[in-house]
């Protein structure tokens, strides 16, 4: 069975950084693209980025402003989201999701494009 598990969320001070991980199992890692989303309290879930694990191509939403970097490690079957210069507005539950076969610039930001979802990891930025 397919599983995606996020980790790395923490309580961190403004200006700090975090590396979130998305470990996967139950499917060939490079057959799925990995998307990242987040949902803050009282807000809808919003897309952040997508990485095609087979070739490393990446897409980001315009609001990322250079503070988010997505990557993957095929050997570890794990995708990552690095966040730098954390702001209070980054406080949210962060999710990874798997979709096939590749990220597409016209669809990567739509939740319905993804088949499998993790349960999220909480990032809290203190002010």
Secondary structure blueprint with pairings:
Elements: E1 3-7, E2 11-13, E3 18-25, E4 33-39, E5 46-52, E6 58-60, E7 68-73, E8 78-83, E9 92-99, E10 116-117, E11 121-126
Parallel strand pairs: 2-11
Antiparallel strand pairs: 1-3, 3-8, 4-5, 4-9, 5-6, 7-8, 9-10, 9-11
Structure, described:
The protein is 0% helix and 48% strand. A hairpin with a 6-residue loop joins strand 4 and strand 5. The model has no long low-confidence stretch (mean pLDDT 95). It is globular, with a radius of gyration of 14 Å. The chain has 127 residues and is an all-beta fold. The chain has no helices and 11 strands. The strands form 2 sheets. Strands 2, 4, 5, 6, 9, 10 and 11 form a 7-stranded mixed β-sheet that branches.
The percentage of residues in β strands lies in over 45%
Q: What oligomeric state do these chains adopt?
A: single chain
Q: Could you tell me the radius of gyration in angstroms? A: 14 Å
Q: Please tell me the overall pLDDT.
A: 95
Keywords:
single chain, 127 residues, mainly beta, 7-stranded mixed β-sheet, 4-stranded antiparallel β-sheet, globular
In short:
It contains no helices and eleven strands. Strands 2, 4, 5, 6, 9, 10 and 11 form a seven-stranded mixed beta sheet that branches. It has a four-stranded antiparallel beta sheet with strand order 1-3-8-7, with no helix packed on it. By secondary structure, it is mostly beta strands.
């Amino acid at each position: 069975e397919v599983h995606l598990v996020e980790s790395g969320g923490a309580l961190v001070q403004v200006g700090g950084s975090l590396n979130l991980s998305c470990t996967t199992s139950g499917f060939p890692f490079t057959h799925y693209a990995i998307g990242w989303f987040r949902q803050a309290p009282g807000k809808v879930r919003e897309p952040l980025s997508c990485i095609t694990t087979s070739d490393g191509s990446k897409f980001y939403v315009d609001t990322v402003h250079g503070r988010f970097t997505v990557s993957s490690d095929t050997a570890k079957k794990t995708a990552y989201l690095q966040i730098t210069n954390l702001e209070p507005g980054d406080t949210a539950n962060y999710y990874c999701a798997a979709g096939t076969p590749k990220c597409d610039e016209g669809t990567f930001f739509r939740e319905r494009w993804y088949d499998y979802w993790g349960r999220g990891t909480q990032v809290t930025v203190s002010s």
